[in-house]
Specification:
This is Delta-aminolevulinic acid dehydratase. This protein is of the alpha/beta class. The protein contains eleven helices and ten strands. It has helices spanning 18-24, 61-74, 101-112, 144-160, 175-185, 206-212, 232-244, 258-268, 278-289, 295-309, 319-327; strands at residues 34-41, 47-50, 53-60, 78-83, 117-122, 165-168, 194-199, 248-252, 272-276, 313-316. Strands 1, 2, 3, 4, 5, 6, 7, 8, 9 and 10 form a ten-stranded mixed β-sheet that branches. Bound molecules: zinc ion (ZN).
């Protein structure tokens, strides 16, 4: 296609004033784009701020509905739940306990705030004593196939508690298929799977591990999460999960992997989620608190870039703030 050239074509003409800028705008943020992560913990009266994530709290079940009502009042109506269990063990048993922390939280929200759509994160790292995302072999290797049945049991237990979408984040091979099969067998064929299909072994997860109390006690997660150097492999991971029955795929983290997000979206034209992770949030917050950046401007620009790159939905800790700003 041949565009005009200067002086007949002057791109600045369509930047001269808000009215024409609005006509030209290709991407716009909406409160419907956001999924807010929530950390639930046992106990009562607990609303503990995570030190590396100002404004983000772990809440106990009795304070959960107040949190949900605040979100709904702001127009945020998607949450993803993470649980901090009372007890951890080798196999992360509480993950599939029908009275585990996430299951209780799920039931509570569904009963008291049916307008909220509840997604549950499915993984073992919050529940295992060693903090890895699966069951270990004797040598400490995370055993892929042994982990699949544990994840499937967890997902079914979440669905029984009323979870409206399960989101496996472990990065085991074959888990989407295993979870789909288990959900279908249990009569939950209408519960969709949001797969963390393309999840990188990232330094940006640091603050989350404080939030979810899930740091591995030895080693790291590079034997299952992806190498940050690989984009083709990220596209293949999404392809595998779509083939296994995922209803949404994900790229995580978001900002350092916008190229991968863009490729996944353009390759499959499939519902695609980006996770704007804890480290991305913490960096913006820290700089804003120091007066080094304009927080509102930077957050809106960041989220816009994620949507422009191809995200249909964005999981973000900024959701409450952005909802307020968009409503002004
Ligand atoms: Zn995990």
């Amino acid at each position: 296609m041949q565009y005009g050239s200067f002086p007949t074509y002057r791109p600045r003409r369509m930047r001269n004033g808000e009215a024409v800028r609005q006509m030209m705008r290709e991407t716009e943020l909406s409160v419907n784009d956001f999924i807010y992560p929530l950390f639930v913990k046992p106990g009562t009266g607990r609303r503990d701020e995570i030190s590396s994530m100002p404004g983000i709290f772990q809440v106990s079940l009795d304070l959960l509905i107040a949190e949900i009502e605040e979100l709904l009042a702001l127009g945020v109506h998607y949450v993803i739940l993470f649980g901090i269990p009372a007890a951890k063990d080798e196999l992360g048993s509480e993950s599939a306990d029908d009275h585990g922390i996430v299951q209780e939280a799920c039931r509570l929200i569904r009963q008291n705030a049916p307008e909220m759509f509840v997604i549950t994160d499915v993984c073992l790292c919050e529940y295992t004593s060693h903090g890895h995302c699966g069951a270990l072999d004797e040598d400490g290797y995370v055993n892929n196939d042994k982990t699949l049945s544990l994840l499937a049991a967890e997902a079914v237990s979440h669905a029984r508690a009323g979870s409206q979408m399960v989101a496996p984040s472990d990065m085991m091979d074959g888990r989407v298929g295993a979870i789909r099969e288990a959900l279908d067998a249990a009569g939950f064929e209408n519960v969709p799977i949001m797969s963390y299909s393309t999840k990188y072994a990232s330094g940006y997860y640091g603050p989350f591990r404080d939030a979810a109390d899930s740091a591995p006690s030895f080693g790291d997660r590079r034997a299952y999460q992806m190498d940050p150097a690989n984009a083709d492999e990220g596209v293949r991971e999404a392809a595998l999960d779509i083939a296994e029955g995922a209803d949404m795929v994900m790229v995580k983290p978001a900002l350092p992997y916008l190229d991968v997000l863009s490729r996944v979206k353009r390759e499959f034209h499939f519902p695609t989620v980006a996770y704007n992770v804890s480290g991305e949030y913490a960096m913006v917050k820290a700089a804003a608190q120091n007066g080094w950046i304009d927080e509102r401007r930077v957050v809106l620009e960041t989220l816009l870039s994620i949507k422009r790159a191809g995200a249909d939905m964005i999981i973000t800790y900024h959701a409450k703030d952005v909802a307020r700003w968009l409503a002004e």
